[in-house]
Amino acid sequence: MKQVSPSATLKLTAKAKEMKAKGLPVVNFGAGEPDFDTPDPVKEEGARALRAGFTKYTPTSGIPELREAVRKKFEEDQGLKYSAENVVISCGAKHSLYNLIQVLCDPGDEVIVPSPYWVSYPEMVRLAGGKPVFAQTSQNESFRLTAEELKKALTSRTKILILNSPSNPTGGILEEKDLRALADLVVKHDLVCISDEIYEYYIYNGLKHVSIASLGEEIKKRTFVVNGASKSYSMTGLRIGYLAGDAEVVKKIGILQDHSTSNPSSVSQKMAVAALALPKSYRAGVRDLFQKRSVLMQSLFQRAKGFKPFKPEGAFYIFCDIEKTGLSSERLCERLLEEANVAVIPGKSFGSDRHARFSFACGEKDIEEGMRRVIDWSEKNVK
Ligand code: PMP
Ligand code: GLU
Predict the structure, then answer these.
(1) CB of 92 closer than 6 A to ligand 1?
(2) Architecture (CATH level 2) of domain 41-276
(3) Per residue in 171-184, pLDDT tens?
């Protein structure tokens, strides 16, 4: 635990919520959670499950109907064929990732994490006794991990490559040609790939989500696809995540859950079944709404002195180069929170001190008000 830091995203989101509860007019660009309500059919299913007394232990790896719904989802969305034995349900995608890394990573193993990265990957690797090795990406190359950078990070101890497309925090994606080059290396070096696809449905500008696992049998065998209900269906508090991959590893994750959490919440599992049954139009509607917010926030950034945003291709974050403000990312975020009451996450916690992460998972009014304050602040404080 001495090597592990608290989650900056959770800490700042909690602080912003607390300030808001005290009556301070905080605009929260920190939160990595959609502002809209959980869809009604999902809530109704939860109420029905409660009334029916579905409140007892379930099979540790998930109720059969949810494992089947997840299996079907992978097939319908990406043509990925799994059987229910390849699927395990956990208490959020974070838990899926944590379990997977606990099961796969031995002390001393190296895990390649493209940087900037989501805050929890390196810490999960350290919690398993592994060593995170960062592979650099850059804003000039749309934060795409290239085969060259991956090669530079490889050693004889490399075991796992973590991919996250669309990416938190950058909003960058990996297109099929990028994924093919990475998949070739994963197969050639006999690595395991963890593909975190939690922002799969948030993808913009007509781009298409591609799962690395769909690029052939060899890469599929070595890949674990992680996803969950939090972001797609605004179910962050209900804690349902899942993954699919090699049946032996999936079985071991079940054993780990047997002795740690047991099953994910019974009622939440029923709600996830209802969520996965929602029509495709629901997801397209949410994506269009978020695309609009993304465009709005980007256009307002044009007037913020010293801020150079990356145009996101997916997820719901704008990762912004703040070097010209002359401040470290932590100092900038402290000052924005204190002086403008705008909560933003310092890039340092994602591996880049010259960036800050602005979430647009809030309403348009908040985006307009928060960005007005950022623009005013920049006029007064940036040379
Ligand atoms: N992966 C990424 C990249 C995320 O941003 C999140 C958000 N917390 C998660 C996984 C985990 O989500 P959850 O545990 O809520 O399913
Ligand atoms: N993933 C979200 C974020 O990055 C939620 C917080 C967390 O779990 O890290 O803000």
Answers:
(1) yes
(2) 3-Layer(aba) Sandwich (3.40)
(3) 999 999 999 999 99
